[in-house]
Amino acid sequence: MLLELNLVKHLPKQLFVKYGEETGLYIVPEKSLGVLGEKDFHSQYPNGHQVEYSVFMLECVMEIHNGISGDRIVYKVNLDSETHLSILETRHAKDLYQLIDESRESIGKWLSFPEKTNKVEDTEIFIEKSLKRYSENNGYWAGIWHNGTIAGSIGFLYIDWSARKTEIGYWLGDQFLGKGLATKAVKQLIDHSFTELDLRKVEIGVASNNIKSRAIPERLGFTQEGTIRNYEFLQGEYHDRVIYGLLKEEWNSKI
Questions:
Q1: Over the stretch 16-56, which tens digit does the pLDDT of each residue have?
Q2: How many C-beta neighbours within 10 Å does residue 208 have?
Q3: Cα dihedral angle (170, 176, 179, 180), rounded to 10 degrees?
């Protein structure tokens, strides 16, 4: 069964749900949306518990998937007619690993995780950790899908609620470069940061020699705030990291 809710503008809050290790983490809309009320939830999933969590994006499409592991309720946001973002789940681990493996050399030139990702189980562990952080309201990773195929990933590396700031990370597989996908995805997370999460600042850190990746925050109006020298040692070479920052009022002045 597929249920579509045309949720334009803001979906104020959702209930984050976990009911059993084997079924993973699930999203269930608030009872005000008329899909699954609190009483019905507890009758169907007596071992579950609920905590409030901010909605992932604007213009959400809720999808209910009936599978062998139970009803799975996820959501996605369309970036354009061919591209969407969706929270990474463990069922995506195989495709995510294949994408990393195919682009291992180019991604590993700038980022450390390909060296630590040597089997599908490694991507499963990564996704499980991401979902745990999501449940703790401390960021998450989403997949970038293009024409039905996973093209890369983007996420909040953390959320500092006291300082009201976050950092966005992103990467794409080789065959999906040059299509503007990362720029669209970053723009969506910026919007989410300042509207739904009500944060004050977004940061992006990029290797100083990664010119294509640096072009994204520069294109979106970030300010280069400084450089951390010898930040990372990858493939036998030290890399400096350039830190970009964007304030809420700066972003609002552009839209």
A1: 333 333 333 334 433 333 333 444 444 444 444 333 333 33
A2: 14
A3: -10
Q: What is the pTM of this model?
A: 0.74
Kindly state the tokens that stand for 15. 């209930």
Question: How many residues are there in the chain?
Answer: 255
Q: What angle do CA 105, 115, 235 make, to 5 degrees?
A: 60
Residues 139, 151 contacting (CB under 8 angstroms): no
Whether the CB-CB separation of 129 and 141 falls below 8 Å is answered with: no
Q: Identify the band that residue 12 occupies on the pLDDT scale cut at 50, 70 and 90.
A: very low
Residues contacting residue 199 through CB under 8 Å, at least 6 positions apart: 159, 164, 165, 166, 193, 248
8 Å CB contact between 153 and 139: no
Q: Is 56 left (phi over 0), alpha (psi -120 to 50) or beta?
A: alpha
Amino acid at 127: I
Q: What span, in angstroms and rounded, lies between the C-alpha atoms of 49 and 111?
A: 36
> What is the secondary structure of 200-239 as a DSSP string?
SEEEEEEETT-HHHHHHHHHTTPEEEEEEEEEEEETTEEE
